[in-house]
Write a structure and sequence with these properties.
- It is a single chain.
- Helix content is 28%, strand content 24%.
- By secondary structure, it is α/β, with parallel strands linked by helices.
- The radius of gyration is 19 Å and the shape is globular.
Length: 236
């Protein structure tokens, strides 16, 4: 017997250089908005959520779950998305489902027999990288890591490169690796429509869902000052 499909899923992403929201139900996207932006997600997200929910003609009580990207990505963007997901989940009594940015980018691409390397720009010297194995669906072939482009381990055979850090990684490849690589220009950042589909699949599988937690692969750029910021007085 086929398991019943979950109810509607609202999902959104603010982890990278975009803001998007979408509503999924019964295998289809009912409403979607996507806007590239490096900053400003805190102002854009909630109105975008309101618009896609209105377009889908749904109330938050109608939802089965809320999907959200958990990283890796921008620290501020992750906090914006996770705070919104937790608030909506608490108010509606629905579960929140976390999806990584790397798997969301991978899942936007049609499966293939070759390998896939997803690279996200970490806004520093390194990249956030994860390998995926091809097949009927993309499957993780390693854990997400933060690494310099020239140090990234690559598949032995042909592979595709995707994500907004893919061009940097491609430029760092030697001749032999570059000959095996196919650079994909589309799907550079996560799309809430894909996040909603992945969240719905997890509900359908009966997977135990924990509260989403941010996936940080390196410490934040901003650090607390020594002594908690207190002024130190040097006595003579």
């Amino acid at each position: 017997m086929t398991a019943p499909a979950p109810g509607p899923v609202l999902a959104f992403d603010t982890a990278c250089d975009a803001c998007s929201a979408a509503v999924w139900r019964d295998g289809a996207i009912l409403a979607r908005e996507f806007a590239p932006m490096a900053r400003g997600q805190s102002e854009a997200l909630l109105p975008m959520i309101e618009r896609v929910m209105a377009a889908a003609q749904l109330e938050f009580a109608d939802l089965a779950a809320i999907g959200v990207t958990v990283g890796p990505g921008a620290f501020t963007g992750l906090r914006i998305g996770l705070a919104a997901a937790r608030a909506i989940a608490l108010a509606s009594g629905k579960p929140a489902v976390g999806v990584t940015t790397l798997e969301a980018i991978a899942a936007a691409l049609p499966p293939a027999s070759a390998s896939l390397v997803v690279a996200i720009d970490a806004k520093r010297d390194d990249l956030y990288v994860q390998q995926f194995a091809g097949g009927a669906v993309w499957r993780p072939a390693g854990a997400p890591i933060a690494q310099l482009p020239e140090a990234v381990a690559l598949p032995d055979g042909p592979f595709a490169l995707a994500g907004d850090g893919a061009a940097r990684l491609h430029a760092a490849l030697d001749g032999a690796a570059r000959a095996r690589a196919t650079l994909i220009a589309d799907h550079a950042v996560p799309d809430a429509a894909v996040v909603a589909r992945l969240a719905a699949a997890r509900l359908l599988s009966g997977e135990a869902l924990a509260s989403p937690r941010p996936l940080y692969l390196r410490p934040p750029d901003a650090k607390l000052p020594r002594d908690g910021g207190r002024i130190r007085v040097t006595r003579p």
